[in-house]
Structure formats: C-alpha cells, structure tokens
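Chain X:
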Amino acid sequence: MNRAQAQNVIIEHAPTTLPQVNYLRLQNKKVLSVKNLYKSYNNHSPVLSDINFDLHAGEMVGVIGRSGAGKSTLLHVLNGTHPATSGEILDYPDVGMPRDVSVLSGRELNRWRSKCGMIFQDFCLVPRLDVLTNVLLGRLSQTSTLKSLFKVFSQEDRAKAIDLLEWLNMLPHALQRAENLSGGQMQRVAICRALIQNPSILLADEPVASLDPKNTQRIMRVLNDVSEQGISVIVNLHSIDLVKEYCTRAIGIAKGEIIFDGNPALLTDDILHKLYGDEISQLH
C-alpha cells in the first residue's frame, strides 16, 4: 500500500511531511536526573545500588554489562513499570520545577510513561491487530479504553501514525497483521508506537538482540536518527561495537552499580573486564 491508498482507506487527509517532531531540545538541556537510586525485590539484596546520573536532550546512551547486572531493571524503574525502592528520578519539564517521577501513580504515572517511552526485545505488539492499530495503541494514555477497543482514534493521530510508518518504510504493511511481520519489521512498528506518544525520552531494552545483522544496523540507525531529533535515547546493548559506533555515551553496570560513565571510546580492556569478567572474550 502506498501513501495515497493509505489516505483513502484510513483517513481523509494526512500531512505530507515526515515526522518533523516537536521534540527539539537544546543539546545541553537536562531532561532527567537520577539520584541515589536503589531497587530490590522482596527485601533481597539490591538489584540496583546507588545509581546516579544525569540525562540530557539528544544523548544516545548505551547501557552495557553482563546479563543480570541490572540493565533491564534500570530501564523499567525509569519508566515506572517497576517501582524504585528508594532514591529520586527527577524529570525536568520545559516549564516549571523538576518533579520526582518515582513517586507517581495512576494517571500521572501513565502520563510519565508516555513522556518516557519504551521498546522491548520481544516487541510487545498485539499479533492479531494490524500494524496501524498497533502504532495507534501508543495513544492509549491520551484516549479512553472504550475508544481504543473499537479503534476510534482521531484523524490527527492516524495521520501521525501514517507519517511514522512512512518514515520507517512500513507504510505498505499498515493494514497487515503484526504476526505476519519479520522481527526487524516488528521492531520498527514498536518504535513507531513509542514515538507516537511524543516522548522526550526513549528507552530501548535489548532492541536488536533477536535481529540479524542487517536489521540490527537498520534499527540502530533509526535510534540514532531519533536522538538527533532531540529525544534522549537510552539503549541496553550487549555489543560493544554497536555502542562505539552509535552511542555518544556509555554507562557500564556491574552487580547493580555504575562503574563507568563516559565516552564509549574510553572503554578500555580493563574496564570491560570489570564489567564482563571472563565473558569479555564473547564480546563483539
């Protein structure tokens, strides 16, 4: 399906430009500040211990460390899907004072999850729904559950969904069921679903772990493009090569603690050994 067909089938009119986002930020603008963050489950030893870092607009941060180090937990706590045990996660809005989003609940927490979008390794699409509807589900926090059940979305939302799908070369699949897509296609749809929320931060939890090399490079380029539009991107990765190629900053976590935070070019063999131990030989 081309754009004209999509307009005829889906909406009466859609804008003709690519998604020129409203997310543009000054490069040095602080968007998030994590202070003394701890996370533990069932009173066990902390999964995250004394995590501290600031995040600025347009950064692309690669979070690295062996499996079980706490990388995924960090993203879930930032997004609010897992509550923090203690500490602060300060959101810096364009207007007004910073607020601690770790204490939010209900509608306020849902609004934060829209601002801090997330994509996953397993895509989390609804298999039997078409691609366009899966993207529009990213607007759930801005529409009623009843409307979403009957696929009642505004023409503005549909127009933006089409723009995003066109941007990622997925418009021909707009009316195709998600279960019929390849892994790389599913991840592109998942990115569209996150971006339709108009986030200022995008979290990506191992987004290329199940993809082939071609689709890995394609998704990493997309995330890089997103960061260049002023959105802060935090991505969990196992590949040090990808971190050095695409990320402006790396955060290394070992046993729940940050032991490196800086330019990926400064990741020495000594630091990598502290992060990965004997697994260092498996890095690529």
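Chain Y:
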Amino acid sequence: MDNFLLVAIEEAKLGLEEGGIPIGSVLVRSGSIIGRGHNRRVQHGDPMAHAEIECLRDAGRVGNYSDTVLYSTLMPCHLCAGAVVQFGIKSVIVGESVTFGGAVDFMLDNGISVKDMKDAECIAMMERYIKEHPEIWNEDIGS
C-alpha cells in the first residue's frame, strides 16, 4: 500500500468521525505531504468543501503545481478535477472508482495521469457510507 494513500485514508476516517463523508486527500511534492484534507461539506454546511479542495486550501499558495501528486480516496468529481486541471497538477492517484466513477475522462483528456489503486478499504468505506447515508450522498455528486 502506498503510504500517501494511507494518509488520505486517515483523513477520510477523520471526516467520518466528524459526521461527514469519508473522503480524504493529500497533496505531495518531492516525497513530502504539503497539504491534506477531508470532505467537510456536511460539517461546514459548505457544498464546496470537498476533500481535494480542502487539501488544496491546506497546502496554500505553492506556486507551480506541475511537480505535485494529488491523492484521493475516491475518484475526483468534476469540481475537484477542474481544480486539478486549473492548477496544473499532472498526476492523480485514487483509492477507488467503484462507488463513484468521477471525472476520470475529463482528467485524462486534459493530459493528467490517473492511477486507480482499486483499494478494498476505500471501496468498503464508501459502500458502507452510501448504504447508511444515501440522502447525504445523493445530495449532490452521488445522484
């Protein structure tokens, strides 16, 4: 297992402990985490507080993002994929895309390398959450 994906999973679990959706993300440069975050749209009542957006906020202004890698426990949606394209992030590694296919084609069409780890823990965590909280999941991206 990739250690950075493990940290993203830790972030997802923090979100779940806070009563939110278990999606986590980290931004890596030169082998070091420079940003981390988890989905907080439930906790903050903020539809924009997706894990990847929170991660980028945590990283702050880092100048050029072309040498960074974004990790996420779930395939990014179009909102988050748009941020990846906008900031010029060239590589995205995801825990899974079974429960949500996301915007993989959009990222690939924009020259971004996308690697799906098909991680069993990420899949199980999202399957459980979607089953237990369909109303929250279907509020925006799940439907």
